[in-house]
Design the sequence.
């Protein structure tokens, strides 16, 4: 039996109000972070792209071949892109509360809404950056198509999911310890240098490699690289990595409910 027309209208209006709140938060986020212009957005999108190609230039200048046997630019990109997706998403989600905390005085705006809006903006920004990287690859004659496209997409998505979860956890921590922002920046730098962006972790001594495998970021990088080279000779514990992604999101939402709402 269909619900009364009035009830359907109420539900639709509630959804429309929520959608409008998220849309307004996204627009405000983009205007404040990107200088209120399209050029500001373009610069922010191109920043990680420039980061990747700078790393490629360093490898080429030093004459470092790709350990995967393919193009050096593809080797760096398959390591840097998933790591940067995780880092930017987790860091920017954490900073969202610092920028948008005054909006919490409006009854329609909740901490979860601010986090969701920032996550959507980061997803859109990352997608645009990925399109630019693929376009540059095609222009310079590098084939960016993985041998197993579904596996590559899965790797990027789990990096995004993990970034969302860790970002939500960081947001709750920062409400209690504001200085955590700088501590987390140091942690992300260490993660970036040790996640296998510039090397293959499986070529290290087994004792060290077994320790590195505890990091889900290392396994996400291997996940993406396996999509480009299934003969890479590494194994990924997909259950472990997905558990990290889902578990971090669950813990982040739990902390948003019982920590963030209490101290904001």
Sequence:
């Amino acid at each position: 039996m269909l619900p009364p027309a009035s009830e359907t209208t109420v539900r639709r209006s509630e959804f429309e109000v929520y959608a409008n709140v998220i849309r307004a938060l996204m627009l405000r986020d983009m205007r404040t972070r990107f200088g209120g212009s399209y050029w500001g957005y373009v610069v922010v999108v191109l920043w990680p792209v420039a980061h990747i190609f700078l790393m490629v230039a360093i490898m080429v200048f030093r004459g470092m071949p790709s350990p995967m046997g393919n193009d050096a630019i593809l080797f760096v990109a398959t390591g840097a892109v998933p790591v940067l997706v995780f880092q930017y998403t987790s860091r920017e989600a954490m900073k969202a509360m610092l920028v948008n905390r005054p909006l919490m005085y409006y009854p329609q705006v909740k901490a979860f809404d601010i986090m969701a809006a920032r996550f959507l903006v980061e997803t859109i920004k990352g997608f645009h950056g990925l399109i630019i990287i693929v376009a540059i690859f095609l222009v310079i004659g590098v084939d960016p198509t993985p041998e197993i496209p579904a596996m590559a997409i899965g790797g990027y998505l789990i990096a995004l999911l993990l970034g969302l979860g860790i970002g939500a956890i960081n947001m709750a921590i920062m409400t209690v310890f504001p200085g955590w922002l700088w501590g987390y920046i140091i942690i992300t730098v260490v993660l970036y240098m040790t996640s296998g962006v510039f090397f293959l972790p499986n070529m290290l001594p087994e004792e060290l490699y077994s320790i590195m495998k505890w990091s889900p970021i290392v396994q996400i990088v291997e996940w993406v690289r396996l999509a480009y080279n299934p003969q890479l000779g590494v194994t990924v514990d997909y259950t472990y990595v997905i558990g990290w992604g889902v578990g971090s999101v669950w813990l982040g939402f739990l902390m948003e409910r019982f920590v963030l709402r209490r101290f904001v």
Observations:
- The mean pLDDT is 81.
- The first helix runs from residue 5 to 33.
